[in-house]
C-alpha cells in the first residue's frame, strides 16, 4: 500500500505508526467534530499520520433495539464535513454490496467488518471503487488465511489494501491477540492492530458487548513493539454514554498520554 496515495494523509515520512481513530458510530455532527478536532490536535503535535474513523451505520448488533445510526447519508455527510474541515482522510465500514459505491462518494477508505471479510462480493465491490480497502481479520480466521482476502482486492487491480487484526475468539466471551499474526500478515499488506475491539467481551447474557478498556495501553504497546504499521482505536469523550461499543472504548482524555508513549516506543524500536 502506497500511503502517499491516501488523500490528505499527513506526516507519512515521520517514520512512526499511522492511526485510525474516532467514535464507534457517528451519533451526530457536534460529537464527530469535537472528537476529530481533539485527535487532530494530538496527532499534529506528535506527527502521526491520522485517519478519522466513524461508522455511518451499525449493522452487526446484539439486539434489535441497539443503536444502528442516524441515517446513512446524514452520517456520511458528517464524515465528509470532518474531512473537508480538518483536511484528514476518513474511513467507514460497509456491510452490503450497495454500500460500497455509496460510501465511496464520501470517504477515502472502505472497511470490511471482521464477520464479513470472507464475503467475496462485498470485498470485490469495495476494491472496484478504487478506494483504499481495510480488511478486518475475522475473529474466526488465522493470520495466514488473510492472504486470500488481500488477493481478492489486488485481483481487482487495486493495490491499496491493508489488514486490521481485531483479536481472535477462543471461547464464547473473550478475545485474544496473537501477536505472531502481525509479522505473518505484513507479508501480504500493511497491518493495523485494532486495540479497542481486541478487548471486547462479546456474547454477554444482557445482549450488550462488554470490554476491558483498562488494558488498552497494554495491547497498544505490545502491538507497536511487535511491529504493527498502524493502530485502530475507538475513542469518545463520554464512553459511558456512547451509543455503541462504549464498554471497550478509550476515554478521549487519555489519548494524548497513550500516543505520546507509543511514539516513544516506536522511536526506540526504530533505533535498534
Automatic annotation (TrEMBL):
Subcellular location(s) of the protein: Cytoplasm
Pfam annotation, one family: DAHP_synth_1
EC number annotated for this UniProt entry: 2.5.1.55
Recorded metabolic or biological pathway in which this protein acts: Carbohydrate biosynthesis; 3-deoxy-D-manno-octulosonate biosynthesis; 3-deoxy-D-manno-octulosonate from D-ribulose 5-phosphate: step 2/3; Bacterial outer membrane biogenesis; lipopolysaccharide biosynthesis
InterPro entries reported for this sequence: Aldolase_TIM, DAHP1/KDSA, KDO8P_synthase
Primary localisation category: cytoplasm
GO molecular function: 3-deoxy-8-phosphooctulonate synthase activity
Domain DAHP synthetase I/KDSA: 14-263
RNA-binding recorded as keyword: no
Catalyzed chemical reaction(s): D-arabinose 5-phosphate + phosphoenolpyruvate + H2O = 3-deoxy-alpha-D-manno-2-octulosonate-8-phosphate + phosphate
Assigned keywords, A-Z: Cytoplasm, Transferase
Family to which this protein belongs: Belongs to the KdsA family.
Protein's name according to its UniProt entry: 3-deoxy-8-phosphooctulonate synthase
Taxonomic source organism: Jejudonia soesokkakensis
Amino acid at each position: 500500500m502506497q500511503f502517499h496515495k491516501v488523500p490528505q494523509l499527513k506526516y507519512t515520512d515521520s517514520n512512526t505508526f499511522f492511526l485510525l481513530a474516532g467514535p464507534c458510530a457517528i451519533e451526530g455532527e457536534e460529537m464527530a467534530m469535537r472528537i476529530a478536532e481533539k485527535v487532530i490536535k494530538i496527532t499534529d503535535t506528535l506527527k502521526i499520520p491520522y485517519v478519522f474513523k466513524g461508522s455511518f451505520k451499525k449493522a452487526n448488533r446484539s439486539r434489535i433495539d441497539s443503536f444502528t445510526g442516524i441515517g446513512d447519508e446524514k452520517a456520511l455527510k458528517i464524515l465528509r464535513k470532518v474531512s473537508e474541515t480538518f483536511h484528514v482522510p476518513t474511513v467507514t465500514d460497509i456491510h452490503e454490496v450497495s454500500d460500497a459505491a455509496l460510501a465511496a462518494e464520501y470517504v477515502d477508505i472502505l472497511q470490511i467488518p471482521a464477520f464479513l471479510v470472507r464475503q467475496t462480493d462485498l470485498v470485490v465491490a469495495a476494491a472496484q471503487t478504487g478506494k483504499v480497502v481495510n480488511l478486518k481479520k475475522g475473529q474466526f480466521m488465522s493470520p495466514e488465511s488473510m492472504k486470500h482476502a488481500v488477493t481478492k482486492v489486488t485481483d481487482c487491480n487495486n493495490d491499496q489494501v491493508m489488514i486490521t487484526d481485531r483479536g481472535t475468539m477462543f471461547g464464547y466471551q473473550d478475545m485474544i491477540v496473537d501477536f505472531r499474526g502481525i509479522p505473518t500478515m505484513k507479508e501480504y499488506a500493511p497491518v493495523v492492530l485494532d486495540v479497542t475491539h481486541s478487548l471486547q467481551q462479546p456474547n454477554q447474557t444482557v445482549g450488550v458487548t462488554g470490554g476491558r478498556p483498562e488494558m488498552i495501553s497494554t495491547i497498544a504497546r505490545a502491538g507497536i513493539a511487535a511491529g504493527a504499521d498502524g493502530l485502530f482505536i475507538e475513542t469518545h469523550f463520554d464512553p459511558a454514554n456512547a451509543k455503541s461499543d462504549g464498554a471497550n472504548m478509550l476515554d478521549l482524555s487519555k489519548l494524548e498520554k497513550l500516543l505520546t508513549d507509543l511514539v516513544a516506543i516506536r522511536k526506540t524500536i526504530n533505533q535498534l
